[in-house]
Here is the input.
Amino acid sequence: MSALSELDALILRETVHPPLITKNAELTFAEWDAHVTAMYDAIQSIVSGDNVTPYNPLTVYNAASTDVYLKFAGYDSRIWEAIGTFSDVTPTEGVNWTQVTMSELLPDVLKLAQISAGETGCICMKSAVQQIPSANILTSYDTPVLLNLPRVAGETLVVIKVVVNVDFNTVAYATNTTLGIRFVGADVDILTCDILARTIIGAKEFVIVTTVGDAQTQLIDDADIEVYTKSGNPTAGDSAVKISVVYFVA
Here is the structure.
């Protein structure tokens, strides 16, 4: 029995409000405690973040985004809404995050459902933005960085386009400066981008998907997508890299 259905078992002192039972007497301490507990559990079941995409420090959250994955996150059994645009800020009530109820999230969920069910054969485009710290880029050949592209088991992520943005800090990346983006387990990249060595502040590059031969595996069902540096880890560099992806789920 859910916490919400347990509210039907509450006992009233004298007010008549079916289907609740009217006792016509004072509540005992046990009855009162049961009331408070039932109401607390019901609220917890509504605002729990268990069914919302978990918080990811690498995701760039954006309060103005039309993508609910970039506006809301589940953390510490709560639903959190982003305030402003940022990444790598653990949800807590304050400047960057605020707790919300399911009722506040519901219009966004219904909008997505309406779009996806609006037409037969409709393909719903999604977008994601992920900030990758320089420390992760420097080790990304040995430890590729997973992109946070939400999907369920069995689905295939189909990437349409990618924009790579290197926000130059003070030291350029050296030696291995080509990024590759691929499915985990694939033997050929979805795309590559030789941008890491640039020293222009805010350097961006638009990358399109490449075509491959019949003998190569590029698209893999039920697999995540990762970013890595080709040939080896960079030997220097301190700039963050932002990956913006447009994709759909098949």
In short: DSSP finds five helices and 15 strands in the chain.
